[in-house]
Amino acid sequence: MINRIVVFTGSKKDFERFINSRISPDENTIPFMELIQHYNARLRPNESGVRESALSKKISVDNVVVRMDDYGSVLDHVMSNFANIVGLNHEIETLYVQNPPRRALESLQTTSRGEIEYHGTEYYSIDRSVLSNAYQRLCKDVLGQEECKKQIISGIYRLSTLKNEKPVVLLLYGPSGVGKTETAKSISASLGGELLRIQFSMMQTNEAYNYVFGAEHSKSSFARELLGRETNVILIDEFDKVNPVFYNAFYQLFDDGIFTDTNYTVHLENSIFLCTCNFASEDEAKKALGPAMFSRIGCCIKYDELSVENKREIIDSWYNSIICQLRDDEKEFIDATDIRQWFMDNANRYDNIRTLKTKLENAIFDELAEHFIISTEQHS
Fold this sequence. Notes:
The chain has a 5-stranded parallel β-sheet. It has a 5-stranded parallel β-sheet with strand order 7-8-11-6-12. A two-stranded antiparallel sheet has the order 9-10. A hairpin with a 4-residue loop joins strand 9 and strand 10. The longest helix has 26 residues, at 353-378. It has 380 residues and is of the alpha/beta class. The chain is 47% helix and 17% strand.
């Protein structure tokens, strides 16, 4: 029997914070998987090694906690009979459930004797103060691309004014490694959490079809990742590499902020979708995406190659961020090398900023390893 049901929709971080605020340490609380183990033992008492008399007794607990990742560990019939199975062997005062699949939620709603409590992650509301902070952080995190930053903030501004709750959908296009992904990370950090990043370059197989449209409840899916997001900022990376057959899954999402698959319905009103691609022009994007998808893009924002001066600023910033984490003797040694100056002099060799950062980092740690480890061992 379950006396009280609390359903939480949102991120793992927020769910853990929520249950910690609701459950005191002296309460008898068990995880869902412990409950399922007892249920399995009752189904197969000969295999469990537990006496049937013990299995037939109801166990009283204050709380059972079901986390989003738990569903992947149970068979399909558990979802359809979720409430009955959870309450079969246990007297539960409060059942806490995070992001239940549709059938599990319907089971709880059908058998619940009282009202179900609903809670969830509270996402930032966009106002001018939030936008101002986001712009300041964006200017700090992303060097160059000044016009892009202005267009990003302009595109998001409507969420502070228009009340139709329609998501903002922005297409960030241009060459790789010039700040598109860093832009998304910066905006998400301004809105209170880690960015949800979806890599669409993998979306070419049957597994990809199941990921987008949903299949078994135990499998990872686009909808489940959306439910677990920390902020209302979603980066769909390499949107140009997705099979066009998947685009119709996004029509309602971009129009109304609702995404539905076989297991979940996710509400994403007032969300910000940043879709990156490597198109060279807006016309190329329109031709590749097709009129139905392109018409749902709120704004196309072109990212240009960075100037040599921008690259030198990035080198200086990344070099300093690594140096400040080193020990004093390591800092002194690296500062005595010509690593920083070599990269400043050769900044124009690098078109991709990720590659530039990786090469700089490797150069520093190659020198440290050689000086402090390898040469020391060879002379010992």
